[in-house]
Amino acid sequence: MPKRILQGTVTSDKNDQTVTVMVERRFTHPVLKKTVRKSKKYRAHDPQNTFKVGDSVRIQECGPVSKSKRWEVVAG
């Protein structure tokens, strides 16, 4: 099964080797027929601490790196 890849914006880089990425998805509401924006935060592994707040990044699923990290940064 292929690994999921999501695109989002870095919202925090305070932790060592970790970035928090906010991923936003848009969909049409089933009843109101209005476009709705929902966002979710993921913690991703960034071994070299290369990405800073505001950077647009792509993250990919991986095995557990720590208690909260199940994603790794693929590219900026």
UniProtKB/TrEMBL annotation:
SUPFAM superfamilies xrefs: Nucleic acid-binding proteins
A Gene Ontology term for the protein's cellular component: cytosolic small ribosomal subunit
Keywords associated with the record: Ribonucleoprotein, Ribosomal protein, RNA-binding, rRNA-binding
Keyword RNA-binding appears in the UniProt entry: yes
GO BP annotation list: translation
Domain of life: Bacteria
Pfam family, one: Ribosomal_S17
Entry GO MF terms: rRNA binding; structural constituent of ribosome
Matches recorded under Gene3D superfamilies: Nucleic acid-binding proteins (2.40.50.140)
Protein task: One of the primary rRNA binding proteins, it binds specifically to the 5'-end of 16S ribosomal RNA.
Family that this chain belongs to: Belongs to the universal ribosomal protein uS17 family.
HAMAP family for this protein: Ribosomal_uS17_B
Xref: NCBIfam families: PRK05610.1, uS17_bact
Subunit (UniProt): Part of the 30S ribosomal subunit.
The name this protein goes by in its record: Small ribosomal subunit protein uS17
Organism: Psychromarinibacter sediminicola
